[in-house]
Structure formats: structure tokens, C-alpha cells
Design a protein that fits this description.
single chain, alpha/beta, 4-stranded antiparallel beta sheet, 8 helices
């Protein structure tokens, strides 16, 4: 009805600043990751330079003067005690949080200057707790993003589910009550969700927290076999699994 037009116009206008904040910034592609004439394997794909961050009304900084360069294709473990700032650092590296000082770069570009779409193509952050909805496992993983032939996509998802030892789950398995899905199953399904369009940088926060020893080892080996840059945040994996990473960063 015409009487509702004014209301809709107000809603559209109120959304403009949100839309602008999500879309403004430079586009970014893989070609931007290394300066001209420099091998991509020799240059940092992701770097933090003197990054400091603290939450309002807290006396101390959660992350203080952190600097590190992550190289393409390498596997990194960030470990530390509870409250050491591991999750906050993961959000800073992914661009979900902005540092109070210092900067985070993808290639030679500051994360804050890259558009959301460009950033999402390059880096994906998998949180400790992620959402599942009532639908098939396939749709929970792909979020309805179809890539090529549907049958082939379903077969590939089933293969990856088997690799992560979700042997009783297939793409066409229906999730009728997400509360009945165990924490270990949830974490592995959400991990595959992040890997449908595999980014160049994958940051995973506590991927083994809800898993037994055998499944935890399987997930870590699965991540370390990926050709992309992988950063795992964990409290304690044990020496056996820590040895799979090129570098261990202790906070």
C-alpha cells in the first residue's frame, strides 16, 4: 500500500550506512598478494605489525605489541593459557576486530582498507561455536552455494565428511534438531562450511575442543594437509600434534 512507502524509505535510508561500511574499501585478489617480481612463497601472505588491542573498561591490553609474518602454505599454531588473548588475536588477524594501534596486512594491503567481499575471499575465521540450522547437512555446509554439478558437489561433501570421520553423516542427512548434534560433530561440519570456497588463509579457533584424542588428531592432520595457509588457535594439543606445524607461537 502507498501508505507504507514512507516507512520503507526510512528503513532503506537507515540501512545505507551499514551497507556502506560492509562494501567500502579496495577490492583484493590473489594477484595482489606479492609485489611485482617477488615470489609469493617468499613474501608474507598475512602479517601483524605491533598490534595492540584492549577492550573498554579493562585495565590491561588483551593483545600487546604482537608482530608476526605468516607465509603462504605454512601451518601455524597459536597457543596459550586461557585469557592470554588467543581468540582476540584470531579476530584481529581475520579483520573482525580493528587494533587500537599497529596494523594487520594481507599481502601489502591493510585489512581495514580491503572491502568485506575482498577480505572474505582471502581469509576465513572459524569460531569455537558456530550455528547449525534445520536443513540438510549439505545445505548447512554449502549455505546453498552450488558449485558446478550438484551430484559431484554432494559426492565431494560426502568424501570430506568421511575424511573427518563423520561416517554416520552424509550430505542428505537432515538436521531436525541442532541441539542434539554433538559439539564434535558441529565443529567438523562448520569447519567444512569454511572450506567450501577455500580461502588463501584459514584461521580455526579451538577445532579440537569437543573431540576425543583420536578425532582431534585426525582433524589436525586434515588441516595440516591443506595447501593453503592455516592458523590454528589451541590451548593444548600435545607435543605429537604440535610437531605437525611449521611454527608454534606462544602467547
Amino acid at each position: 500500500p502507498i501508505t507504507m512507502i514512507v516507512s520503507y524509505v526510512n528503513q532503506m535510508n537507515s540501512c545505507k550506512p551499514v551497507y556502506k561500511s560492509l562494501t567500502e574499501g579496495d577490492e583484493f585478489s590473489q594477484e595482489d598478494l606479492a609485489p611485482e617480481g617477488e615470489k609469493k612463497s617468499d613474501s608474507a601472505i598475512l602479517s601483524a605489525e605491533h598490534v595492540t588491542f584492549g577492550f573498554p573498561n579493562e585495565e590491561r591490553d588483551v593483545v600487546k605489541d604482537f608482530s608476526f609474518s605468516f607465509l603462504p602454505g605454512k601451518k601455524y599454531l597459536i597457543k596459550g593459557a586461557s585469557g592470554s588473548g588467543k581468540t582476540t588475536l584470531a579476530k584481529l588477524l581475520s579483520g573482525e576486530l580493528e587494533p587500537d594501534s599497529g596494523n594487520v596486512r594481507i599481502g601489502d594491503r591493510e585489512v581495514s582498507r580491503i572491502s568485506l567481499s575482498g577480505r572474505n575471499r582471502m581469509v576465513n575465521y572459524v569460531e569455537q561455536s558456530s550455528y547449525l540450522f534445520k536443513d540438510s547437512v549439505l545445505h548447512n555446509i554449502t549455505l546453498y552455494r552450488e558449485r558446478g554439478d550438484r551430484a559431484q558437489q554432494e559426492a565431494e561433501i560426502d568424501r570430506q565428511l568421511q575424511q573427518l570421520r563423520l561416517n554416520h553423516v552424509q550430505g542428505n542427512t537432515e538436521i531436525t534438531d541442532a541441539s542434539r548434534v554433538s559439539g564434535g560433530e558441529r565443529s567438523r561440519i562448520c569447519l567444512l562450511r569454511a572450506m567450501v570456497d577455500m580461502p588463501d588463509i584459514l584461521i580455526v579457533d579451538e577445532p579440537t575442543a569437543a573431540l576425543d584424542k583420536e578425532n582431534a588428531e585426525n582433524v589436525i592432520r586434515y588441516l595440516c594437509d591443506c595447501p593453503e595457509t592455516v592458523i590454528v588457535i589451541a590451548h593444548n594439543l600435545g607435543e605429537n600434534l604440535e610437531s605437525l606445524f611449521e611454527e608454534v607461537i606462544r602467547l
